[in-house]
């Protein structure tokens, strides 16, 4: 991260690598969920058991619900 000082203000500017990492970090759960759904569709199409895909789907639902609870807690503590 670069720091740029203008008068009494300091502006922190993220590097391109830091921006890339933030984008990936913010969207990784959606990407995993999307891949899981695609793999599940392929497994169903070729007739393979989808037990692991179902477990991934349930894990993703649990993660999303926990994230919503944490976000609600954060908003409640903040405001």
Structure at a glance:
The protein has helices at about 15-45, 50-79; strands at about 1-5, 10-15. The chain is an alpha+beta fold and about 80 residues long. The radius of gyration is 20 Å and the shape is elongated.
Could you characterize what this model shows?
The protein is α+β, with helices and mostly antiparallel strands and 79 residues long. Helices cover 75% and strands 13% of the residues. The protein is built from two helices and two strands, in the order ββαα. The protein has a two-stranded antiparallel ribbon with strand order 1-2. Strand 1 and strand 2 form a beta hairpin. Helix 1 runs antiparallel to helix 2. The chain is elongated and about 65 Å long. The model has no long low-confidence stretch (mean pLDDT 90).
Provide the residue-averaged pLDDT.
Answer: 90
Radius of gyration using CA atoms only: 20 Å
SSE run: EEHH
Query: What spatial order of strands do you see in the largest sheet?
Result: 1-2
Largest sheet: 2 strands, antiparallel
Number of helical segments with 4 or more residues:
2
As a percent range, the share of helical residues equals: over 70%
- List unreliable stretches of 5+ residues: none
Counted beta strands: 2
| Beta-strand content estimate | 5-15%
Distance between the termini: 30 Å
Shape: elongated
> Which structural class matches the secondary elements?
alpha+beta
